[in-house]
Write a structure and sequence with these properties.
Radius of gyration: 20 Å
Strand content: under 5%
CATH superfamily of the largest domain: MFS general substrate transporter like domains
CATH topology of the largest domain: Growth Hormone, Chain: A
Largest sheet: none
Oligomer: single chain
Number of domains: 2
């Protein structure tokens, strides 16, 4: 096995865990509400803490990867996942859970700049980027499915503990098989130009992100109240959310193809606008009609990412 193939295994494990571990929380919100006797607003605070610290972790991650190398950042990432999974396993209070989820968000925020940098140095970059993307998409869908099933079987704490074992495997592989020369120290310069077009894209993507995370973090909770699956509320809602997120993969692929064929500025408007009627319909339907509407919304919603990223690249020198 070549060094590049080992790198793909390392980054695939890392990318899978980012999305799988952060999507456990939506599947177990109902259980946390019951155990800690908290309101829906308090559950929203938990979700906000995880997402907020994920964003904060991503901010310095690229600088750290350039200064210390991808290997050092990914080692820190895997160790952090292990610590957060153990912390959450022993969490006995709402405050402990909030601290653990904040730390989990901070650690998962480290991954993408370092992981993408490692993949970008491999031959056949496009092919390996696709493998990397598939691993993340599988993690996104597997998170609520696994989280709902494991939480119903052995409790939500165990649902967080077991992925720590996969993180340990990733840590062992990167320590044993990945060797990277230390990057040469460079003078740090922060130089960027932001135009009105950039600000418009940033504003739209921020609002989209608010709707996106609000939707998918509370979708399992919504499914427990609106859909009867016959598999138990937590397990059923987790599987349905995973199904919707799998359809999101189709949306990503479709968004990429459409972005190659049509003017991306016009496509950007349509992709954002198409979310609105399906979000409105979700408020008026229940049962399997709701599942169908949400499935289409999942595909439409994930079309945004490739179109947004391509449009940003178009306007950035």
């Amino acid at each position: 096995m070549s060094q590049f193939q080992k790198n793909i295994i390392i980054t695939s494990i890392g990318h899978f865990l980012v999305h799988a571990m952060t999507m456990i929380l939506p599947a177990v919100l109902v259980l946390l509400e019951t155990e800690f006797s908290v309101s829906l607003i308090s559950l929203g605070k938990l979700v906000t803490i995880q997402i907020l610290f994920l964003g904060l972790g991503g901010f310095p991650a690229g600088i750290l990867a350039d200064r210390f190398g991808s290997r050092a950042v990914l080692i820190t990432y895997f160790i952090g996942l292990i610590i957060s999974s153990v912390w959450l396993y022993f969490a006995t209070t709402f405050t402990m859970a909030a601290i653990g989820l904040g730390f989990l968000g901070l650690i998962t925020g480290l991954y993408h700049p370092a992981g993408l940098k490692m993949v970008s140095h491999s031959p056949n970059v496009s092919r390996n980027m696709s493998y990397h993307g598939v691993a993340g998409s599988l993690g996104l869908a597997a998170g609520p499915i696994y989280g709902g099933w494991m939480a119903s079987w052995m409790g939500w704490r165990t649902a967080y503990l077991l992925p720590g074992g996969l993180a340990l495997l990733g840590l062992i592989i990167i320590l044993a098989y990945h060797h990277e020369s230390a990057p040469k120290p460079k003078e740090f310069k922060l130089n960027f130009t932001v135009t009105k077009v950039h600000l418009t894209i940033f504003t739209v993507s921020s609002l989209w992100g608010l709707a996106h995370h609000g939707l998918f973090n509370f979708l399992p909770y919504y499914f427990t109240e609106a859909v009867q699956t016959g598999f138990g509320s937590v397990v059923g809602s987790g599987f349905l959310t995973g199904f919707v997120l799998l359809l999101g993969i189709i949306g990503q692929l479709l968004g990429g193809r459409l972005g190659e064929r049509f003017k991306r500025k016009n496509l950007y408007i349509w992709v954002v606008a198409l979310n609105i009627p399906f979000l409105v319909m979700m408020a008026y339907y229940q049962g399997w009609y709701l599942v169908g509407i949400t499935g289409v919304l999942g595909a439409v919603n994930f079309m945004f990412q490739p179109v947004n990223n391509s449009l940003l690249a178009d306007v950035t020198p």
